[in-house]
Every structure is written in structure tokens, then in C-alpha cells.
Amino acid sequence: MKNVTYIVGHKSPDTDSVCSAIGLARLKELTGDTNVVACSAGKLNKETEFVLNYYGVPVPMVLEDLHIRVQDLMGAEFHTVVASTSLRDAWQIMKDKEQKKTLPVVDDAGKMIGIITIGDIGMAFAERVICEADDNCPITNVFPTSVSVESVMHTEGLVSFQQDDLVDDVRKKMVETRFYNYPVLDIEGRVVGLIGRYDLLSITPKKVILVDHNEFGQAVTGADTAQLIAVVDHHKVGGIITADPIYIRVEPVGSTCTIVTQCYKEKGLTPEKGIAGILLSAILSDTVIFKSPTCTDLDKETAAYLADICGVDAKAFGIEMFQASSNIADRTSQSMIEEDLKAFTMGGKKVGIGQVSLMGMAGFEDVRAELTAAIEAHRVAEGMTYLCLMITDILVDTTELIVTGENPEEVAKAFGKEIVNGSVDLPGVLSRKKQVVPQMTKYFA
Ligand SMILES: [Mn+2]
């Protein structure tokens, strides 16, 4: 699809991030903008998988990169020949199929073994005409069908690209070489398309709408090179600079999906049952079933409206949703760290804060040591000064903040507490955004 606009949430996608993208894409389609694709910025977490499955909504495509790559510019149609193809047929293909300059030559498995260009054929033609001029040979017989591609193709000095090569790198290589078209190969070496010099003339950045975040640090790779069309979010605004005016809708509510639902209402539209279900799920997820201090009256009203459409009891469904995804035995340490991890810069330090929500702490002591070691390993790998993981028990509204890094006592002090057993006890804390990030940002500033 050309000229598509991707709608995507933050990395380590959570339910709000994924469902707001799907809900907004559907709204765009309903209002006549069909060239939009809802994406998730990575693998779905268990909760989101449960929610999409529950309401029968298809899993969105994964989009982890917005850089322009070769595969974005390749034409849909391309032709290849084999070594035994006659020169006549090769020439006919070039003529008929609008592939006038270059034909990749492939083996039986589709792997490239050579290239034949119109120049190669022209050269062979000229040689034959000159050689055979004395024999009065008619031009139509210059290339008898017995003359094959193999006799004139070149097999050395081939220049090709991979589908995921960055266009910036391709451009450099094209400047150094003089071909018109270049074969594009997959990792097996099979020809999957062609890219020409002219393809690079028409490059436009990918279009993106960011939902549930507004900082490039949390966005998919290359988002800063894309054309930002709009932002729909409920987080603090973190310093996006744009080249052109864009649509920005940021509201201090509990979930991006609350805003998306308002957008439906403003257009006089009602979300379909499945969409209503996933929008509701995201509100329940982000507000921890209305218990988070980020939850507003508008979130509650919106959830009631959506629950009505999809015919569920909001609170009961919320409990079912959290239970379905919070079984510790089903999760690895790494998945708990990464499922909702955000990176921040606090007083020049790179700080990661993740959150895991549990319905009760059953089974947690069994994994504590392994989890803490994995957090420390992840911190080192990511070059973070601190990596903290909120273990939030939403049955009793409390968080244990596991802290790794330079000087864990400093993190504890941000909350006026002490480190006990490698973590800070934070009763009543449910919200990273309101009850953890501001305290730490202020302390480390
Ligand atoms: Mn959110």
C-alpha cells in the first residue's frame, strides 16, 4: 500500500497503546480515510492478546521501524530469466514488460547467478552484425533461439541489495556504481524485486500517527525520520519538534482510548462491538479498573458507555482480564521486565521504569531472586543508571519497587523511604505516571 499512514503506540506496547491504534484506525476508515494501518510497536503482551482474542479483533501488524528501507521502494512486478533463456526471449521480456534495462538471471531456486542488461544484448547484437555482415545474414537471424542469456550475462561485479537495507546506504552505493536497476535479494539470495535509481527520486518519509506516547525516545525506531501527522495521547508532553503543523490531542485522562472514544462521539459514530470491547479493556487496564489516581470521571463514564455497547460488566471483565494475564508461572523474568518498560532521562541519567500488575502476590517469592538478577542484567545491557520494576498488586493496591543500579538508596530517598531487600515498599501506589515518575524526576533533577 502506497502513501499509507501508520498508527502506532509506544515500544513495549501495552493494551492502551495497541487498542487506541486499532480504534483510531477504524474511526479513520469509517470517516473515509482508508489508507491507515494500525500497528503495534512490538510483540503483544499477554493482556493485550487476551483482550483482542476475547473481542475477536485481529492482531495488528508489528511495526518496529519507520526508516525507509529497500522493501518500501521496490516495485510490485519484476521479471527474471534463467541462463538457458534465449537472448531473443530476454529481449522480448525487456520490451514487453517495461523492464527495459536489467534482468536478473536466476537458478532453479530463484537465486541470482548473474545479470543481463540491455547493454549486454546490444553489445552481443553489434558483434554479431559485424561478424556476420559478410554472410548476408538477415537481421532476424542475428539471434537464433540457440543463443542463450548465459553467453552474454555477466556474473562478476554484481551489485545487489537486501530488502531491509536502509535507503541512505543504498543511495551511497548507487553513487559509486553506474547501473540503472539493482536486484533486491532475500537472505537466501533469491531475487525478490528490483530497485532503480529513479525509485530514489520519489522518496517521501513514512507517515505516522503516534498514540499513547509523544516522545521519540518511546517511539519505534526511525519515528524521528517519519512525517508526523498527529499525536493522540494522555501523557506529559515531552518535547517533540515538528517541521509542519500537526494535529495534537493530549488530554489528562486515564487512557488514550477514552480520548479515542470521544473522537467517535464527536463524529456522531458508535464504535462497533469488538472495537468498543477493546477500547473498554484499555481504559480498565490503564486505570487499573478505575483505581489509579490517573482515572477521571470521563474515563468512568466512557467505560460505562463502552461496556453497554459490548454487553459486559466493566468491573467484572476487568478482573477477568487482569487475572488472565497476571499468572506469574506463565511469565519469564525478561517478559516481566520488558512488557511495560519505559525509559526516562532524569538529571542526565538514563532511568528505566517498568511495571508488572498482579492480582495478588502468589508465586512471587519463588521468582524474586531470578527476577532481580535479570533486572540488573537488563540495566547493564541497556546502559541505564537505574532500572526499577514496579510490582503492583492490584488486589490490595500496593507496589513494591525493585531497584537496581548505581545507588539504589537514592531512588528510595525520592519516596522518603529506605531500601529493604532490594526494593522500596510503596503502599497505595498504582500509577507510574503520577506516583513514581514525578517523584523520581524531581529528586534527580
Ligand atoms: Mn496509556
List the helices and strands and how they pair.
Blueprint: E1 5-8, H1 15-30, E2 36-40, H2 46-54, E3 61-62, H3 70-73, E4 81-82, H4 87-96, E5 102-106, E6 112-117, H5 118-132, E7 161-162, H6 167-176, E8 181-185, E9 191-196, E10 207-211, E11 227-233, E12 247-250, H7 256-266, H8 273-286, H9 297-310, H10 314-325, H11 333-338, E13 341-346, E14 349-358, H12 364-382, E15 386-393, E16 398-405, H13 408-414, E17 423-427, H14 432-435, H15 437-444
Parallel strand pairs: 1-2, 1-10, 2-3, 4-5, 7-8, 10-11, 11-12, 14-15
Antiparallel strand pairs: 5-6, 8-9, 13-14, 15-16, 16-17
Helix pairs in contact: 1-7, 1-8, 2-10, 7-8, 8-9, 8-10
How would you describe this protein?
The protein has 15 helices and 17 strands. With 445 residues, it is of the alpha/beta class. It has three domains: 5-66 and 206-325, inorganic pyrophosphatase (n-terminal core), CATH 3.90.1640.10; 72-202, CBS-domain (Roll), CATH 3.10.580.10; 331-444, Roll (Diaminopimelate Epimerase, Chain A, domain 1), CATH 3.10.310.20. The strands form four sheets. A six-stranded parallel β-sheet has the order 3-2-1-10-11-12. The protein has a five-stranded mixed β-sheet with strand order 13-14-15-16-17. Helix 8 crosses helix 10. The model has no long low-confidence stretch (mean pLDDT 91). Manganese (II) ion binds at residues 16, 212, 234, 255-256, 286.
Proper CATH architecture of the largest domain = Alpha-Beta Complex
Spatial extent as radius of gyration: 29 Å
Instruction: Tell me the major beta sheet.
Output: 6 strands, parallel
Oligomer: single chain
Percent strand: 15-25%
Number of helices: 15
The CATH homologous superfamily of the largest domain is named inorganic pyrophosphatase (n-terminal core)
**Rounded average pLDDT:** 91
What molecules are bound to this protein? manganese (II) ion
User: Which CATH top level class of the largest domain fits?
Assistant: Alpha Beta
| Number of beta-strand segments | 17
Please tell me the total number of domains. 3
SS-derived structural category = alpha/beta
Low-confidence residue ranges: none
**Ends: how far apart?**
45 Å
What is the overall shape? elongated
Helical amount = 25-40%
